[in-house]
């Protein structure tokens, strides 16, 4: 994404915010899956690949924590 932005546009000063569809089980007793959306940031402003991966890992971990917390809420 960063390479494309460098070639065709400008790289923003901050991360891009993207929406990701996620599927998860509503509860242990229900088998069907529901689909939700969560915002996640993509750190296109970072040039170092290690920093990009670290940032993405942290953001994904937060997303999974929030998803787990939401799944544990009673209806």
Verbal overview:
With 75 residues, this protein is an alpha+beta fold. It has one domain. The chain has two helices and two strands. Strands 1-2 form a two-stranded antiparallel ribbon. It is elongated. The model is unreliable at 28-35 (pLDDT under 50).
Which descriptors apply to this entry?
75 residues, alpha+beta, two-stranded antiparallel ribbon, 2 helices
- Pattern of helices and strands: HEEH
For the termini, the CA-CA separation is 39 Å
What percentage of the residues does DSSP assign to strands (E)?
A: 25-35%
The biggest sheet, with number of strands, parallel, antiparallel or mixed sense and barrel status, is: 2 strands, antiparallel
Global geometry = elongated
Helix fraction, binned, reads 40-55%
**Uncertain residue segments:** 28-35
Structural class: alpha+beta
The domain count comes to 1
User: Which value, in Å, is the CA radius of gyration?
Assistant: 16 Å
Average residue pLDDT: 76
SSE blueprint and pairings:
Layout: H1 2-8, E1 16-25, E2 33-42, H2 49-71
Antiparallel strand pairs: 1-2
Produce a short descriptive summary.
With 75 residues, the chain is α+β, with helices and mostly antiparallel strands. It has two helices and two strands, in the order αββα.
């Amino acid at each position: 994404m960063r390479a494309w932005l460098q070639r065709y546009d400008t790289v923003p000063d901050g991360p891009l915010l993207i929406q990701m569809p996620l599927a998860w089980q509503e509860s242990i007793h229900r088998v069907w899956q529901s689909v939700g959306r969560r915002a996640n940031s993509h750190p296109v402003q970072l040039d170092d690949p290690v920093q990009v991966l670290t940032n993405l890992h942290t953001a994904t971990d937060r997303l999974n924590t929030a998803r787990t917390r939401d799944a544990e809420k009673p209806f």
